[in-house]
TrEMBL record:
Name this polypeptide is given: Serine/threonine kinase-like domain-containing protein STKLD1
Documented EC number(s): 2.7.11.1
GO MF entry, a single one: protein serine/threonine kinase activity
Gene label: Stkld1_1
Keyword Kinase annotated: yes
Keyword Kinase: yes
Catalyzed reactions: L-seryl-[protein] + ATP = O-phospho-L-seryl-[protein] + ADP + H(+); L-threonyl-[protein] + ATP = O-phospho-L-threonyl-[protein] + ADP + H(+)
Length: 313
């Protein structure tokens, strides 16, 4: 109430945020966290020129969302909060250090389907893509932005086809740049999977995107989530085009079928990885030429192994 009575006074908002920060660690504050979030984001929107207030507000929001996630509470932030966050993103789009924090916040916010949908509604995708282009070298920003992009693109009722199509080049550039950074590559693979699911690729994109995903798998074979999401992305590409299936078989850096075998043997105790690999193989055998090649590579033997390992799945 103290903050709401004096929106225009920066000092009141700063003191209010500092005072709220001293309460939120207390479990009894839980019922008020959503209201706090709305008040903090509005204070940030009204006083966007004050970087100190932005940083303190963002730090407190991160604390609130971390607590909510720890308690298993999903914060369904509304359109007004999404709009405030977008306003802050646009105002500080050149400040890499602050953006790193802000993009982490957006990633946590987008864990909620409702909040992700609201971020999409206010039109944040083009801003995310601009940030990625500008800070392609920044691993933290790339990691967070790709994670947000995945949350926004994976929505079933997505009407942003044209906007999402423009995300493919920059997402591919992120993966290419950070192939050896497992966390960023994992995040970028997830974003590419979402874009493939939404049918955002042109015919000329299938082969290079498949090759890039295979590179990510080769560079990070031990990361189960990356392998799973990379294979799901490849499966989505293969479903759309035989070109992608042939690209996997005939990749210049080595046979894709050998890679599938290696990844399974490395993660044979991971049902999620096995399921993704089976889905990929199932899409590949829809094409006669590809199926014949897979037979010659004795892929039935691998499938029998998987069947024995996961008899009840």
């Amino acid at each position: 109430e103290f903050m709401q009575a004096s929106w225009d006074v920066e000092e009141v908002q700063a003191k209010g945020i500092q005072r709220l920060a001293s309460f939120v660690k207390d479990k009894s504050a839980s019922p008020y966290l959503l209201t706090c979030t709305e008040v903090i984001t509005l204070a940030m929107k009204i006083h966007t020129d004050s970087l100190d207030l932005q940083v303190e507000g963002c730090t407190l929001l991160l604390e609130i969302l971390s607590q909510a996630l720890e308690q298993g509470v999903i914060m369904d932030l509304d359109v007004s909060v999404a709009s405030c966050l977008l306003h802050t993103v646009r105002k500080h789009s050149e400040n890499g250090e602050f953006l790193s924090m802000l993009c982490t916040l957006l990633m946590m916010v987008s864990a909620s389907e409702v909040a992700a949908e609201n971020l999409r509604k206010v039109g944040i995708i083009p801003d995310l893509l601009s940030i990625l282009r500008r800070f392609l070298h920044n691993d933290k920003i790339c990691f967070s932005c790709c994670a947000v992009l995945w949350s926004l693109a994976v929505s079933e009722n997505n009407a942003d086809q044209a906007v999402l199509a423009s995300a493919l080049p920059v997402t591919s550039a992120v993966l290419q740049k950070h192939l050896q950074n497992g966390a960023v590559a994992e995040s970028a693979c997830s974003a590419l999977w979402a874009l493939a699911l939404q049918g955002c690729l042109a015919d000329s994109d299938y082969e290079p995107t498949a090759a890039l995903l295979l590179d990510a798998l080769r560079m990070n074979p031990e990361r189960a989530v990356l392998v799973k999401n990379g294979c799901l992305a490849l499966a989505s590409l293969v479903r759309l085009s035989e070109t992608a299936a042939l690209a996997i078989l005939l990749d210049s850096k080595g046979s894709g079928t050998d890679l599938i075998k290696d990844e399974y043997h490395l993660h044979s105790d991971e049902p999620g990885v096995a399921e993704a690999l089976c889905l990929l193989m199932n899409e590949m055998v829809q094409y006669d030429e590809v199926m014949l090649n897979m037979r010659s590579q004795k892929m039935e033997k691998l499938l029998s192994e998987i069947k024995v390992q996961f008899p009840f799945s």
